[in-house]
Amino acid sequence: MTKSLILDHPFGASYAKQLGVAPWSGNLPGPKVEDWRFTPLRPLAKIPFAPAAADVDVDAIPRNVPTVPGAARIVLVNGLYRKDLSDKALGKGIALSQVRVQAKQGSSLVALNAAYAPESVAVHVSGAAAKIIHIVSIGAAGAQPTALHPRITITAETGASVTLVESHVGLPGQAYFSNPVASISVGEGASVRRYVSVDEDSEAFHLATSLVTVAAGGTFEAFHLGLGGALTRQEIRVVLTGENATVKLNGAYALGGQSHHDFTTVMDHAVPNCVSSQVFKGVVDGQSRGVYQGRIHVARDAQKTDARQLHKALFLSRGPQIDCKPELEIYADDVQCAHGATTGEIDPDHMFYLEARGIDPDTARALLVEGFLADAVNEISVEPVRDLFGNAIGTWLKTRGAA
Amino acid sequence: MSLLEIKNLHASVAGKEILKGITLTLEPGEVHAIMGPNGTGKSTLSNVIAGREGYEVTKGEVYLDGKDVLAMEADERARAGIFLAFQYPVEIPGVTTSAFLKTALNAKRRHEGKPEIDAMEFLKLVKAKTEKLGMPYDMIKRALNVGFSGGEKKRAEVLQMTMLEPRVAILDETDSGLDIDALRVVSEGVNSLRAPERAFLVITHYQRLLDYIVPDHVHVMAHGRIVESGGKDLALRLEAEGYAKYINAAA
Ligand SMILES: Nc1ncnc2c1ncn2[C@@H]1O[C@H](COP(=O)(O)OP(=O)(O)OP(=O)(O)O)[C@@H](O)[C@H]1O
Ligand SMILES: [Mg+2]
A11 lies in a domain? Predict the structure, then answer.
């Protein structure tokens, strides 16, 4: 009937009954919803997902979870905090708790998460955190397709500082749908670095929403990597709520096969004198599809805003598709805003230069692709994490990138 | 056996014949210089030897140590020992010079059945080579050729050559864009590689380079052909007389 909603989905009353909670009253956004035009959810809605089991045995952390040197690990399996798999000592400055999720209003996916998420894993940061916090979310489908709703809350107090790494992975098997929501509050003068890697199983769906607020003088630096999965969307909504806040939001994706990856960002400059920059880069191969939607909103009062956004995609073959939609909504007059978007292919002159030095074509291509992604990856200011993400891309190119 | 043998090579670009029968033989240990007017086909010759796409060889043969070069892909030719120092080295953003050098060096070592070079050994090697060429060592941390000045790019080409130690090095106007001191340093770099088992093909417009890198043979190329060959004195004569007589002869 209407294409703005998908009413026929598996997350209704019977889903709620299995969890013993009140059902989600919402519906999935359909193809007529502007924000979801490029990322169709009908294939997801057709799969009879059941709630993921709470008590799965996980013998080993999946191999594509990197070891972050010196980090303390917090492990979630099917959205639930797993004490048995997590580090006990999180180091100075970090307090971990479980909090009830408030069913606030939000997008349908945030509401879906709120309806079915177990308690939220809440990380409270005061002062300078001694260790990097590594949050690992594992999707473990059983004998049937399952859905999980991880919820993470990060609160950095005034002047606090922390580096977070997040790995979203899954165990191979049945299709699963991860619906994570992260709420991040960067306090006054606080500094939060968050590095997210989504490297789900090739059958997996992953629709993540990050809700970030940055208070006066705060700094938020994020990098999001998208490597696998059948369908992934990383939606990141940032509100700069206090003056002199700085946000660096960067990301990269590498897609092959039938993968679909969507970066949707909303950078909301609500107050004056803030700076935001975004660099997103993607390489696409096979029949994959990459989406970047970036909205910058500058409120009437937000004078002296400096907001930049860049999306660049590299085609490794003719099969993939890229959809890019930058949107600038600028209501203040004294601002600097810039956006750019390009797509291209590997330059044959570059290939020849490398080949003329004895480098075989596959290796040459991999070097050039890594080089293409480098200016996004190099924005990661924490060196060991930068190396890990660089390696993850390198591995992807060697093993999954159709050469 | 000759090191590099070019026999009656014809090649066209975009349907236009540029090389019209080049025959040239480089014996081990020799340095050959090619001079000639702009647009004559000197870079075309070097690109055809290196295996660049877009050049159609319509006739002729090229052999390296008796092996059919034209049957090899560009990367195979390089691993077999052909090195082209480009007239216009391209800038490759995002790829650091050091990552590139290491990959190239390891490709060669693997080809020779040697293990990959270890990180420390590599750094030591680069340090020694950059020092010799008067290049700041930090340069290898920068993206390949990106933002390098004209002269820096040429030095970087010679750095690559001294690291890869090819059998045959083709230097396509490596001297253009170099200042007087750089010209000397780069020439010393080249001369230090001169060896009984190696040969050089030096393309230049300036006799001055040949004062430093003294050639065994000098060839004049015009309109896609080698129109005269001689000893190093030929370069001096060209400097005095120019190319008028070759151009008019063909016209
Ligand atoms: N891709 C191309 N398409 C069309 N013409 C080309 C192409 N590449 C080379 N040519 C032409 O081939 C001819 C030979 O060019 P080449 O670069 O080999 O000359 P050269 O002798 O190296 O000149 P210079 O001394 O100026 O470097 C020129 O007329 C040039 O315009
Ligand atoms: Mg030339």
Answer: no
